[in-house]
Amino acid sequence: MFPFLTVLVLLPLAGAALLRALPEGARSRVREIALGVTLLELALGIVMLTQFDLSDAATQQFTETYSWIPQIGASWALGVNGFGLSMVALSLILTPLVILAEWRRDAEDHHRAARYLALILVLQAFMVGIFAARDVFLFYVMFEAMLIPLYFLIGGFGGEQRRYAAVKFLLYSLVGGLIMLVAVVALYFVGPGGEQAYLIDNLAGYDFGTTAERLMFLGFFLAFAIKAPMVPVHTWLPTVAETARPGTTALLVAVLDKIGTFGMITLGMVIFPQASKWAAPVIIVFAVISVIYGAVAAIGQTDMLRLVSFTSVSHFGIMVLGIYAFQQTSVEGAAFYMFNHGLSTGALFLVVGFLIERNGSPHVSAYGGLQKVVPVMAGTFLVIGLSALALPGLSPFVSEIMVLVGSFGVANAAVVVAALGVILAALYVLLTYQKVFTGPTKEGLEKTRELGIRERFVLWPLIGLMLLLGFLPSLAIDYLRDPAAAVVTTVNAEVSE
Amino acid sequence: MFTAPDISYMAFAPLLIVLLAGAVGVLVEAIIRTPATRRAVQLALTLVALLGALVVSAVQWASLTAAGNVAQTGFFVVDRQALAWFCLLLVFGALGALLFAARTRAGEESFTSLGAATPGSPEEAEARRRGLEVTEVFPLLLFAVGGMMAFVSTTDFLALFVALEVFSLPLYIMVALARRKRLLSHEGALKYFLLGAFSSAIYLFGVALLYGAAASTSYGDVLTAVLASPGDLALFVPGAVLVIVGLLFKLGAVPFHTWSPDAYQAAPTPVTAFMAAATKAAAAAALLRIVFTALYPLEWELSWMIWTVAIVTMVVGTVVALVQTDIKRMLAYSSVAHAGFILVAFAGFSAQALSAVPFYMLTYGLATIGAFAVITQVREKAEDGTVGGEATRLGQWAGLGRRDPMLAGAMALFLLSFAGIPLTAGFIGKFQAFAAAIDGGGWPLVLVAVVASAAAAFFYVRLIVLMFLTDVPEDQQALVEVDYHPYTRVVIWITAAAVLILGVLPAGALSIASDAGVLLIGL
């Protein structure tokens, strides 16, 4: 069997090495090479999609298991079920689009372009690796190693405050990651141990003892909560969003933050089902606070990039609510929402980035009446904005409804409050649209450039996907139903015993 | 009636080779008059001796069937643990020797031309004019390595003391030999010497107490005596505490660390590199052996001390490192913090420490030697173009990534390894140390270590940021020069490759380390 996942991890690394090693003469081709590598990745991903056995979506497929560090029980074990596949697909779709979106930047400075693109490729390797890891140790290593390219992406490319933002990001992530490390080490001693001590399959359903399980769960959860950004450990995200390049932020929020929620499901619920259930009430409270706080904070923002990042805080709250409601529909919805949010927020960051590129200002107040000047852009922005507020017909709607409906009955009050967040979403999206695009055109904006061909190529595929999945959600949900059912059964069975 | 001691010379061969080569080195110093020839001969002799001893150690390792050999009854053992440390020290010694031999582009070496001359005196000027050269650092290095090897293989408190002095005295001298900033160098050496003497005294006092209680200075006898009198520990506990304090001095743990930033900064950088890696390794090894043989039954009485010192060391090392502006001092304080991480592995006295600590010291030592080697390559340049001393102010490193990406990349790798980021050797080392602690029930200590690591990452990363992400004005760039010497570069590439390999594919080294977790006597 072709080792799809290992190739998906190694290919971008090779691409990054190639970009740095290119002779002077070929430097001007770095963007094409990077795009080529990511498109090749995407093609491989599509082949995987066709070979995936949908009738067995809950089982890990394309598995590879090699002994890596037997002394501490770590293996190079990769594999995806329907859920992991959807996340891998998300990262494969977004990376080439981000490269395309950042195409014009550094067009003259090839060295700088090569650095940026090499980091993006390294990041892609780790993204795929994390979503495909079936070994806790491997997951941890990728989780931490990923900080290095991200740190350089944030600290090396972006606005004035970029170094401060990078340090803030690093410190938050590192504290979470290192606390997770304690839990990872503990897992070896409390768990089954041996040469494959960290395989998730071996750890699932293992009886660690109540206290140990809860402590380890908390270690993992804290790291995931920081990554997913949940209130109150979200404050690094707005700082990063306002300074980093929109492309970087798009990848960060759309894909990398999903590692948090992904970990909650694939590690938290699978390995620590009882502790997950035990902590769920408190987590749900924090999730609801995130929903409302993120939405209210978004309304108050004047910087569009910060605004979008706060909407994400709000949306991640909904995902976490769905996960910890432990219902078939809610978990399925959360998993679907993770994919949709990736499309919609990724697109939102990119379109805002295009807008800022034209005028230079990220502030809402600097704009007005752009609708008449750049109608296509206005329309695109509106559709993407509507997807963020979950308008029916676009895929985020389906997933949001699934979470809310699925969680109702288990956490009624939480759902009622979270639904308020949905209403607030309409407020921040439409208010922003109104201020930026309607009314009389602001002076100096009359010559604003319309969306170019390249930019349409970046945004429209994402909109197309959202429309497709909005009307035919089963195309994606078929991949998620069985994995969701499997974890939900685990959690509920464990507890009813 | 005198009985001749029964010495197993074969088992002892690695140590004898190194010490004999040191003695030959002293002769070479007297016989060969031309500095250039003498230097070449000394370097060759040193490397051949160290690598020869390494080969012999490896052969012994392979031929050991049981836990090991007794080299001399009651004083020295050569077991797998000792052999592992031998190899470690020999490798550090060989890398150190290469750094000792390196010179700047202008042909200037790191050591003063006449160690005995007062700074600024006519004698010094005369020595410089006549092109005198210090090459006795090579035999000194050999004696230091030999002393350390004895230090890690001894099983007797008095023999340990002798070994301690054998390896410390050459270091005191070498610290004072810096070519530039002579007064600073002398001051650092004096501090190091005084505090070293102080720690020796404390250690001896502890040994006296233990002798008073057990009527013997052998680890085994002390162990037997402790076990025989479980109710009466009035002499054992203070004795053990003082002995451990003596070793904590060498390890550089707070509050016994005060010499290390000064000595690190003052010493010629190649000496710092060797000292930082090897002294710490030897101290950790001796502490391991003592803790797991003689003092094992005192776990309950001693753990408070280990815990307190570990926590204070990690916190102080990290916090003070945060505010340093000199790279050598920053790395010195980071080494203090690392001493804390090593002590974490001791928490709970889990036998896993016997393999975790050697591995930790391997990863730490390689990265340390590499990092200091990089420091020797970054030099100040005066307005008239003459290359001066090392540029150790943090600000001077800005933009290094632009000028020499490979050098800066290697430095970044070492720093990431210090910080314990995955896919570098430091991560696996830290993982092992934490695993040993958690195994022994020391997870609260691990939590502290984790927070300290996160804070420590800040100052490692700050240097990386300076090198790669900071733009330097043109006029500033001209004031720093990147030097090049093949020996130094070889050391940098070897250590960088090792840090990467041990980080990505550590399985082989880990299995050696776990084989090394055996003591011939004890447990």
UniProtKB/TrEMBL annotation, chain A:
Query: Which cellular component terms (GO) are annotated to the entry?
Result: endomembrane system; membrane
Which InterPro entries does this one have? NADH_Q_OxRdtase_chainM/4, NADH_UbQ_OxRdtase, ND/Mrp_TM
User: A Pfam family this protein belongs to?
Assistant: Proton_antipo_M
MF annotations from Gene Ontology: NADH dehydrogenase (quinone) (non-electrogenic) activity; NADH dehydrogenase (ubiquinone) activity; ubiquinone binding
Q: What is its EC number?
A: 1.6.5.9
Instruction: Report the transmembrane regions from the record.
Output: 76-101, 113-131, 137-157, 169-190, 215-237, 249-272, 278-300, 307-326, 338-356, 376-395, 401-431, 457-477
List, for all copies, the residue spans of the domain called NADH:quinone oxidoreductase/Mrp antiporter transmembrane. Answer: 133-419
- Major location category of this protein: membrane
Coiled-coil ranges from the UniProt annotation: none
Q: Name one GO biological process term.
A: electron transport coupled proton transport
Cellular location(s): Endomembrane system; Membrane
Topological type in the membrane: Multi-pass membrane protein
What keywords would UniProt list here?
Membrane, Oxidoreductase, Transmembrane, Transmembrane helix
Similarity comment: family membership? Belongs to the complex I subunit 4 family.
User: Per its record, how is this protein called by name?
Assistant: NADH-quinone oxidoreductase subunit M
Question: Which source organism does the UniProt entry give?
Answer: Demequina capsici
UniProtKB/TrEMBL annotation, chain B:
- Uppermost EC category: translocase
Q: Which reaction does it catalyse?
A: a quinone + NADH + 5 H(+)(in) = a quinol + NAD(+) + 4 H(+)(out)
**One BP annotation, GO:** ATP synthesis coupled electron transport
Please report the stretch or stretches of sequence annotated as the NADH:quinone oxidoreductase/Mrp antiporter transmembrane domain: 155-453
Q: How does it sit in the membrane?
A: Multi-pass membrane protein
Broad class of the protein's primary localization: membrane
Family stated for the protein in its record: Belongs to the complex I subunit 2 family.
Per the entry, what this protein does is: NDH-1 shuttles electrons from NADH, via FMN and iron-sulfur (Fe-S) centers, to quinones in the respiratory chain. The immediate electron acceptor for the enzyme in this species is believed to be a menaquinone. Couples the redox reaction to proton translocation (for every two electrons transferred, four hydrogen ions are translocated across the cytoplasmic membrane), and thus conserves the redox energy in a proton gradient.
Q: Indicate what this protein is called per its UniProt record.
A: NADH-quinone oxidoreductase subunit N
Q: Name the source organism.
A: Demequina capsici
Cite the source lineage.
Answer: Bacteria, Bacillati, Actinomycetota, Actinomycetes, Micrococcales
